[in-house]
């Protein structure tokens, strides 16, 4: 099964193709340009260099959230267009679950975290043993204090991943909870992780059509929060 994946949830942008756990091609950029400028040229270049086309793909996948509101919209919209063009099944992959793929060689608790500001992180916990990941909680927005209290009960090794990984690692260690930070080259989510997580989802029958693919934000945007604070509706009728 060939899987094409897009990752646009944060500052970097990446694309990848895997086949049954093997990485066939991947491309990554983190040069400050917007994803709307870089994503499609990056995808076209990777496919051409690998001698692949969209028709060769059995599954399409994208990081569906949490993450940057704008980045997620760009990635999900792009994948919806690709899926509709070829009528391909899709997976909207948790950004945190894709990130956790980087921790498959670790034994212990993988703490995936994206900085959500206001002393919160978007977080999910996974147990990793013998290269297999087991989800311990749903994706959530959680305060560092609450996360620390939860992890205090876990006496095993811990590895922090993501752009909120250093924040979590520093907080946990300062409160007597031992935690390691993943190395820089394995710290952040990528399209390879999205593709690998999507392969697992497809085996469980968790695919959707391009029409039904939607982003997952976990909490309201700043604009929506400001409207609610003023007593206004989130959507304008």
Automatic annotation (TrEMBL):
GO cellular component assignments: cytosol
Transmembrane annotation, as ranges: none
InterPro entries linked: ATPase_NBD, Gcp-like_dom, T6A_TsaB
Annotated GO biological process: tRNA threonylcarbamoyladenosine modification
Residue ranges of every copy of the Gcp-like domain listed in the record: 34-156
NCBIfam families membership: T6A_YeaZ (TIGR03725)
Protein name as annotated: tRNA (Adenosine(37)-N6)-threonylcarbamoyltransferase complex dimerization subunit type 1 TsaB
Organism whose genome encodes this protein: Vescimonas fastidiosa
